[in-house]
Sequence to fold (236 residues):
Amino acid sequence: MRSKLTFPLFVGILGLASTYLMGCKKENQVKACFDVYQNNTPKEIVSFESCSENASSYLWEFGDGTTSTSSNPDHIYQELGAKTIKLTVYGEGKEDSYSKTISVNAIAPKSLTITKIRISAWKDTYNNGPWDPDGYADLFPKITNDDRYLYISNHHHDNCEVGSTYEYNTSSGLPIVIEDMDDEIYIEWYDKDSGLISQFVGSLGFKPSEKHVFGEDILVFDQNEFQFELEVIWEY
Ligand SMILES: [Ca+2]
Fold:
């Protein structure tokens, strides 16, 4: 009776031991793994989240020449295109690597060039508006920031209508280049009256960084059915 029990007990103990040993061996395997979270918006912070196993240290290569040793780093790309990210993890003398390629389709612009201003919608009732004593709505724009005028149109359009365009000529000042993407820029409109008196009509402000849409070269501004557009060039 006793000898019959000994063998299964021995096998059982061996089985438990081997399960334990196998478990230990598996536990020691170093495996690199990560997930990427991005939505391709300008100034986007791309988040990397490690799902690695048994890693005690990390080396991230972001594919643009920069690296990080954080476990879950964030990164902002400065250039467009495909980026291959490589994560190498180290643990107990072992290492493992894992790579993934992402597409960076939007980055923050470095400058904004305004080349043309055009009235694209105009309400007839604006003629003879309260800012228009002489009865001719002949508007002209100025572009300013908090500190100074960046552009002053030197011509105006008699009886402003859709399609009135303000663009480069010898003294208008366009194009202008704005390099501070967080600068508050104002488009001010004035009406010219006889005697060269200018009446303030209204203004709209914007920050280039907030108005930026990747690849978009026309910025539309709309206020009370007075709509105008800026033709622009974004440099990245
Ligand atoms: Ca007028």
